[in-house]
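Final report, Chapter 2: Outcomes

The project's central promise was a pipeline that accepts a single protein chain and returns its three-dimensional structure in a standardized token representation, suitable for archiving and comparison. That pipeline is now operational. To close this chapter, we reproduce one record exactly as it appears in the project archive, with the input sequence first and the structure output second.
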Amino acid sequence: MPGNARRLVAIGLVLVPPLAIAGCNSGQSGQQASFSCPSAHIVNGLDRQTFDDGSHLTIGNINGRCSLEDDGMLLRFAVDLTIDGAAGAAAGDRPASYFVVLVDEDGEPIDKTVIDTTLPLVPGERRTIRESIEQQVSDVGVSSAPGWQVFIGLQLDSSEALKQRQL
């Protein structure tokens, strides 16, 4: 039942503060008007990273839509990755990885996808890119979809993740 995640990237240099939690809207009409999308969350503590040069990376501002298809549910989410370049940081592309975990109505993780990207680091400036994620999930219907959840966070090594969770 795992979905196949596909990343679509739209890059922009807008300044948008990160949000801790948000949901998605179904945007349905007619027979699917009462259909509710799964809830979507940014994982607290895995929403930020500080680099050795003092630059900061955050993930947030999640929003999305979903729809029921003949063979299941189609999820479309977008999330912002923002890098605040430290004054003394070296300019250039900064690699970043984040994950998307899909959890079914029983609380069981069904799929985890790790997505690698780069952000344009400019010393002393904030830059944001908007990442789009699309996931198809089979065998999900109107009654079970609201019980599903999507979790998104930065893919950090275990020591960095523990450090960030303590902040």
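Archive annotation: The first strand starts at residue 4 and ends at 11.
This record, like all others produced under the grant, will remain available to the consortium after the project formally closes.
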